[in-house]
Amino acid sequence: MLHLTECPRDAMQGWPTFIPTADKVAYLNTLLRVGFDTLDFGSFVSPKAIPQLADTAEVLDRLELGQSNTRLLAIVANLRGAETAAQYSQIQYIGFPLSVSETFQQRNTNKSIAQALDDVARMQELCARTGQQQVVYLSMGFGNPYGDPWSPEVLGQFTQKLDALGVTIVALSDTIGASTPATISPAFRELTAAFPHIRFGAHLHTTPDSWHEKVQAAYEAGCRHFDGALGGYGGCPMATDQLTGNMPTERLLEFAQQVGEAPNLQTEALADAIQWNQRIFAAH
């Protein structure tokens, strides 16, 4: 069975107009009824950096979690954000973007990779105290436009450092849509073989005509955990072939059906969630 993380946070964070808190809450509560493994629902970062998600704490307080088995994941950019997220027992996963590109790490978090790894170590200690789990996203996981080193061996070196810190969940993240089967396959094949005790996930971006080959490459190389967003929204909505958005959850479900590993989701709730998705992103 494929395990899916639905990422409304990634879909909403760059949206140009503020989505009202009540609409976010209604949408997320619908998603909680679908039955996804994990819901990437919000982030604890500077509201100056991500104003769209400044209401994450308020949203969290209004989520209907009692009847849902879906786990919540919140993204943070530093230790301060992790300390905030750790105050909420409703959150099971705290996600942190660690770039394999030095240039992007500086641009994204104003820190070096070495400093970011120090944050990862301290977040891991924090999670050990609170009973939460850290998810480390290896951003620029399939290459970068800056000329910084990238290869499956580089990914292995980063993973080895994370392994030494006790991190057990790592997601390769296609930050700029650079992934191709030629980069996806060796990355997952080598990492899943070298670190069988680590759960590797794929956070892929795609254009409408390249989604299948990307998912298939990751799947055939051993990946069973995928991130998606209904409608393919995220960063730039997938309006034309030239724009690269999140992997559409609808396509992941289509692939899962094809390979006989479809997750057991509530179809009526999923239909409601798709309607909410269209209402939110069309209206705002």
UniProtKB/TrEMBL annotation:
GO BP, sorted A to Z: ketone body biosynthetic process; L-leucine catabolic process
Pfam families xrefs: HMGL-like
All residue ranges annotated as the Pyruvate carboxyltransferase domain in the record: 1-271
Record bears the keyword Lyase: yes
GO MF annotation, one: metal ion binding
Gene3D superfamilies noted in UniProt: Aldolase class I (3.20.20.70)
Record keywords, A-Z: Lyase, Metal-binding
Coiled coil: none
PROSITE patterns recorded: PYR_CT
Similarity field: Belongs to the HMG-CoA lyase family.
Name of this protein: Hydroxymethylglutaryl-CoA lyase
